Every structure is written in C-alpha cells, then in structure tokens.
Amino acid sequence: MTDVTTLGVAAIRDGVRSGEFTAIEVADAFVTKVSAAKQLNAFIVETPDHAIAAARAADAARAAGEALKPLAGVPIGMKDLFCTKGVQTTAASHMLEGFTPVYESTVSQKLWDAGAGMLGKLNLDQFAMGSSNETSYFGNVISPWRRKDGGNAALAPGGSSGGSSSAIAARLVPAATGTDTGGSIRQPAAFTGISGIKPTYGRCSRWGVVAFASSLDQAGPMARDVRDCAIMLEAMAGFDPKDATSLDMAVPNWEAGLSADLRGKKVGIPKEYRVDGMPVEIEALWQQGIDWLKDAGAEIVEVSLPHTKYALPAYYIIAPAEASSNLARYDGVRYGQRDLPDGANLQEMYAATRAAGFGPEVQRRILIGTYVLSAGFYDAYYTQAQKVRTLIAQDFEKAWAQCDLLLTPTAPSAAFALGEKSADPLAMYLNDVFTVPSSLAGIPAMSVPGGLDKDGLPLGLQIIGKPFDEQGVLNASLALEQRAGFTAKPEQWW
Question: Is 214 part of the annotated catalytic residue set?
Fold first, then answer.
C-alpha cells in the first residue's frame, strides 16, 4: 500500500472514498509519525484518540453506504490558538497553560462537522506574536529543513504558525489551520516549502480563536498544495452570527472553480516591493514568477502602492494597541495563570501574574500598545496609524483599476537559523515587509513555493487579490504551482 503520509488532503479524501485504504489506516499512520517526531516540537498536545474516532466514524459511514462528509478520513493539525472543547488551549503561553475550553471555536467545529479528525494542537509563537516560532513558552519549533552545506543549525519554520508549517513540511499532517495577522500563514509557508492562504478578513469566523489584534486576525488553511488549501478553506469559511466581523456571504466552491488559465487577467507588479538589499535570489524568483504568469496567459503591468513603506510602522502601532486591549483580560482572576505573592493586593496580583504569564515579546508588544493608546499619544500614534492604514487600503483599490491580482515575493529571505534575529526585534519585524500591507487592507493573499535558494531552502511567491476574490488568488497560485513544479522536501533527520 502507498505510504499514506506522503499524500495530501485531496488524495486521502479520494482514497478513503474509493476504498483504496481505510480512514483508520490513514489515522494510524499519521499518529505514528507525529509520535516519532518529538524533536521538531511542532505539537503542544497530541490527540490520537480524536483522529482515530473521526476515522472510525468515516469507515462506519462508508460501510453503511452513507454519503461521506467532505473531509471524511482526513486527519489534520489544529493551531493551538483555536479553542477546542475538552482539549487544552494555550496560545503557547504560560498564561493559559492548563486552560481547557468548554466550547469549540467555530472554525474547528466546521472542520469536525466536515469529517476531519484532530492529530493534535500545534505549537506557535506565544499569542501569535512572532515571525520565527521562538517565543513559545513550550519551546522553539524546529523546521524539518536543513541547509544543504551540511550545517546542522536549527532553522526557523516561520511564525507565528510555525508548528503548522513544520508539521506539514515534515509530513506529520496533510494540512493544518493557521492564523494570519500580519503574515503568520504566508511567511511560515514560504519558509517550509508549503502553501497557505489568508482569506479576506471576515471569511473565517474569529469566534473561539484567542485574539491578538482583532481587526487583523484571520484564520486560514495551510497545506502542501493549492487544491488542498481550497478544500480546507471551503470547510473553514462561512458566516457566523457569533462574530460581528463575519462576512454574511455564501461560501464558493473554490476547489471546483480551480483553473490555471489566466488569459484575460492582468497581474500587477508593485514597484515599491523592490526593497533595498533584497537578495538576488528573491529578485530572480520574482522575475521567474512573472514569466510563469505570462505563460499562463496573464498580462503583466507595473503598479504603484506608494504608501507601502509606511505599512510596517503602521502595523506595529495598530497590532500592539489591539493586543494590549485584548490581553488585558488575562488578570489572574477568572482563568489561566495566577501568581499571588503573600500579602499581595489586587494590583500586585495583576502585576505578578502578568510578569510570570507573558513572555518577553508579548510584554514588549503590550507595552508598545499601551503607550500608543495613552493620553497624549493616542492621536500622535494610533490615530495617525489608522489614517495610514486607510491610505494603504486605497492604494490597493487604485491598483485594481489597472489589474486583477498582484505578484510579490512572500518574504525577503529564506529561513534563518534560530537565534539569528531574536536579539534584534526590528530585524525580525522586517520579515513581514511583503505580507503586512495586504493584512492592513483585509484582502486575500496566498504563498506558494517557487524554488530553492543556494542553500537548498524554499522560497515563496505571493499572490494578492481583490476583496472576496479567493478564487482568483487560488487560480493564479495554481498557475505558479504547476509551472514551478516544486517537489522538494526535507530529508528526514528527526
């Protein structure tokens, strides 16, 4: 029998339906792989029972001649930012260690309703704050990739969805959920040679997802290819009355609509994304992507997004401001961590709890956010940043008058070694330079692998689309995927 762990979502779904293999065989194979991959530290909690129960239900339905659910027989990983009923949900923070929700997030419930099983809760940067998966209270996630020069330096799997990207690249799961606030699906996807899409803000419910920055956070799928992302996104998306920002729109059949034929489409190349010091390899891959899209029938046009250079500064005011507001709920009173020194009053308990519960990066962002929201600075920083955000969104709107989609690199470099940038927050924040603008504008964007750099590490290309045009983003990404023919995978060492 085929090693089912080499298969993606579509192949597993179709194989279970045809009887080529059983769902329980799939679940057992992935459970074994997850259990044997502790060195990657991709999982905070393993849930083999959940995956096996879902597999048994799928096999029983098939044996009874019932119609199978869309994801029947497909086990997945769940980023530990999604609340899962009866299963610890930590956001990779000591603050929530031991917190077991009594409810299910809307997105995870939709996936279980579609027949998927859960292999475990995936590690991430603490409260989704980070670009390298080095801020988790439960330890760094390690990328399965290594530089081909023989160096054994542990590489960053990207962040914050680094557990998801590492697990998919290592074939521990066929797909996983991620969340993207400023690039946390797309940058890890680029670093590990997989695909990931951030849909339009509001496509996927935020209810039951531990909040970082509420006007930016958006759930999305990560998988090995574009088709698998389309299948996952169909199951995850949909209106939710429990989320005030949820889009009340029908969910398209994105998988059925996939087409790599881009004739009649115009793809814009934003001139402002050619940043100083960009590696030659990234520039070359970008040009290669342009050629691939031309080959698919697209017309290439240059566009201008003049406020791009202000995107990162605006983001690192808005996101921490929202984080400082959202994380104020962690006070040691109602749930999660509590530090209560002898004789402490309420304020002292708050301070001790937050000092012990939040890691340094989370504390840094809370302090920045509290500062920019404080009296005397609110207008100078936060109000100005929101005005800049509006200008960035308007830049995209003007670009759509000239083109249907945009093509950019996903990240300014390949994966770096753990510890290489952690001492310099600004160097780390610059990793989001290509992903943040579309997050601020709330529009869909996807990363697909385009090739390898000189060290044999993956590089990603990003497609950005109009609001609600996930189909266009998926189709252009499929055109890139087919022409790139990316089949590289990490050699097993773990």
Answer: no
